[in-house]
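The aim of this short unit is practical: by the end, you should be able to scan a pair of folded records and say something sensible about each. We start with the first protein, listed as its amino acid sequence and then its structure tokens.
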Amino acid sequence: VQLQASGGGLVQAGGSLRLSCAASGSIFSVNAMGWYRQAPGKQRELVAAITSGGRTNYAASVKGRFTISRDNAKNAVYLQMNSLKPEDTAVYYCNADVFGPRGGMDYWGKGTQVTVSS
């Protein structure tokens, strides 16, 4: 199973970006999917997560600015980021809890850089 993320880049404060991530490979079903981020010198933290049924969870720092969604038919998850702030600068990683031939496993994408300039 592979997770391919895209959509990062450089944006000015107040701008928007949309991250996309799709899972591919031997997949029976995808349970929770989410986005994490890691800024230089900091630990990786949860940004947002979504269950297969559409229940969402957000970090307090992004609530009201970011929206997570998913397309179950495509095994894809998206993160719409609005009103971006310099403190949102980080490498963003997608994560998926995938059930496949070997049972349930947790997978990570390679990460996409988001840089917000002031």
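Turning to the second protein, read its sequence before its tokens, just as you did above.
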Amino acid sequence: EVQLVESGGGLVQPGGSLRLSCAASGFPFSSYAMSWVRQAPGKEREGVLCISSSDGITYYSDSVRGRFTVSRDTAKSTVYLQMNSLKPEDTAVYYCATGPGCLEYRYWGQGTQVTVST
């Protein structure tokens, strides 16, 4: 059974930082791309960024470039999203997704809420 379990979300003030984690199991983690996708209230899901099986990073949202980064720990089958200089417009449910390639969302996590507010 494939499982993607996100953690690390919460409430943070503007300018603050959070690190999200996604623990994966049930598929060949080292061979799959890992993506972070977010959905803000009233909006469609938006791809944020992706790390390929060869650790190449692709940004799908220009608004996070320079503030967010992604990494993966193959030994722990975990992918991380480091979010710095957070803005209120980053408020969303953040999902971890995976597939053979960066735009192939075969499996999804349950999501974790990130709220940026004073």
